[in-house]
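User: My instructor asked us to take a sequence, write out its structure as C-alpha cells, and then describe one feature of it. I'm not sure where to start. Here is the sequence I was given:
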Amino acid sequence: MKFHETRIKVRFTEVDLYQVVWHGHYISWFEVSRNELARRFELDPLKLMEVGFLAPVVELHCQFKEPARPNDEIIVRTGIERTELANLIFTYSVLHGETKRVLATGRTIHVLTDSRGTLLYRIPDAIQQRISRMIEYLEV
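Assistant: Let's start with the prediction itself. The C-alpha cells for your sequence are:
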C-alpha cells in the first residue's frame, strides 16, 4: 500500500507552553494532507460541491505517540481504506521528518451527502470513479 506524503515544518505558532506542538494542530495537518491527496482525484471539498455533494467528517481519531517540536519537519502520510458504504475513510501517520519515528496516527470518516446534507446510501457513479482511481493509485 502506498501513501500520499505531505511535508510540513512546525511553526512557532503551533507550539504550546510546554514547547511541543499543541494537539489540535495534528488534526489540521491531517486535513492539509487529505485535501492534497483528494485534490489529485477531484474529491476535495470544492470539487465535490461543484458536482452537488459534500463529505463532512463524522468521526475522527488521533493517537499521540511522541511530540513534535519547534522547527521539526514532519511528514504526514495519508491513505484510504476500502469501504462498501457511502463514505470515505482516510488514515494518517505523522512521522518525524529526520528520524521517521511515528509521532501520531489517526483516521477520519466522512459520510457522503447531497448538497442539502441528505445522507447518501449509495456512492454516485461519478464519485465512485474518482474513489476507484484513488484506491488504484494508493494500491489499496
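For the description part of your assignment, you could build on this observation: The helical segments are 24-40, 45-50, 125-138. Try explaining in your own words what that tells you about the chain.
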